[in-house]
Amino acid sequence: MNLEEMQQRAIEIHGLYDELNRRDRRVWRTDEFMLGFMGDVGDLAKLVMAEEGARENPGGRPALEHELADCLWSVLILAHLYHVDLAEAFDRTMAELETSISAQLAAPGKPT
Fold it and tell me: Which of 50, 64, 67, 82 could form a cystine bridge with 44, CB 3.0-4.6 A?
C-alpha cells in the first residue's frame, strides 16, 4: 500500500469515527484530535520501552505494531485536516536533512 492509499484508508476510518461521534457525542475538534494523538504517542513510548526491556508489556509485539499504525493514522489525518501534501513535505524535509547532514559530515570532525 502506498502513501496515497494509506491516507485514503485513514480518511475513510476518520469518517467512520466522525459518524460514530455524531451519534454518541460530538465530532472532535482538530485540537482534540491532536490531544488524542499525543496520548497515542505516550502509549507508543511505553511500548517502545517495553520492547527494550525497561517495562512490562502484556500486549507484546502486536501492541507495539498496533500503536505504531495508530500513530501513523493520526499523522495521515492531521496532514489531511491541514491540507498538507505529506509525500511532498516528506521529500522536501528529507532533502533538507540530507543536505544538512552531508555538510556536517564533510566538515572537519571534532577531536575525540
Answer: 67
Quick: pLDDT tens for 30-63. Answer: 999 999 999 999 999 999 999 998 988 778 899 9
Between 110 and 13, the higher pLDDT residue: 13
What pLDDT score does 28 carry?
Answer: 87
SS (H, E, C) the chain: CCHHHHHHHHHHHHHHHHHHHHHHCCCCCHHHHHHHHHHHHHHHHHHHHHHCCCCCCCCHHHHHHHHHHHHHHHHHHHHHHCCCCHHHHHHHHHHHHHHHHHHHHHCCCCCC
pLDDT at 111: 67
Gyration radius of the chain's alpha carbons: 18
Task: Report d(CA 80, CA 91) in Å as an integer.
Answer: 17
Map grid coordinates 465530532 to a residue: 27
Shortest CA distance to 37 belongs to which of 77, 86, 7, 2?
77
